[in-house]
Specification:
- There is one protein chain.
- By secondary structure, the chain is mainly α.
- Helices cover about 50% and strands about 10% of the residues.
- It has helices at about 5-10, 15-25, 30-40, 50-55, 70-80, 100-110; strands spanning about 5, 60, 70, 85.
- It has a two-stranded antiparallel sheet with strand order 1-4. A two-stranded antiparallel ribbon has the order 2-3.
- A hairpin with a 7-residue loop joins strand 2 and strand 3.
- Helix 2 (about 15-25) runs antiparallel to helix 3 (about 30-40) and helix 2 (about 15-25) crosses helix 5.
- The chain is globular.
- The mean pLDDT is about 85.
Length: about 110
C-alpha cells in the first residue's frame, strides 16, 4: 500500500536508486526474479512501486540476520527509499474512482 510517487521523485536516487541497490542485496532470489524487478524499477512509470510492494515471496532481510519478510517490504522499507507523491481518491472532473482509492480500500479490508 502507499501513495504513488511523482514521476520526478520516482527517478531520483533516493527512490528507485535505493530500491535498485536493495534488489542486488537480496541473496535468496533467482536471477530471473531480479531481472524482472530491475525492469520494473527501470521503467519511467512510478506505478512500478505498487508492483514492488505487492511482491509476497518471503526472503531474508538485507539488514537483520535471521529475519524473513515479504520481498516488497524488504525492498521498500529496508532500502530506505523515499519519494514524494499523491494519493488520488477521485479523478478530476470524472465520477469514476481512482485506482489509488481502490488500492487503499483493498489494503484496509485485508487488515480486518
Amino acid at each position: 500500500m502507499g501513495f504513488l510517487a511523482t514521476e520526478e521523485s520516482w527517478k531520483e536516487a533516493n527512490c528507485r536508486g535505493k530500491i535498485t541497490n536493495a534488489i542486488g542485496e537480496v541473496r535468496d532470489l533467482h536471477w530471473r526474479v531480479k531481472e524482472d524487478l530491475y525492469e520494473i524499477v527501470g521503467a519511467d512509470d512510478p506505478i512500478g512501486l505498487w508492483d514492488i510492494a505487492d511482491q509476497q515471496k518471503i526472503v531474508n532481510s538485507i539488514k537483520v540476520v535471521g529475519l524473513r519478510r515479504p520481498l516488497g517490504e524488504i525492498l521498500l522499507i529496508e532500502s530506505e527509499a523515499t519519494w514524494r507523491g499523491t494519493l488520488e481518491f477521485f479523478r478530476d472532473g470524472q465520477d469514476d474512482r481512482s485506482p489509488h482509492l481502490e488500492r487503499l480500500e483493498n489494503y484496509l479490508s485485508s487488515r480486518r
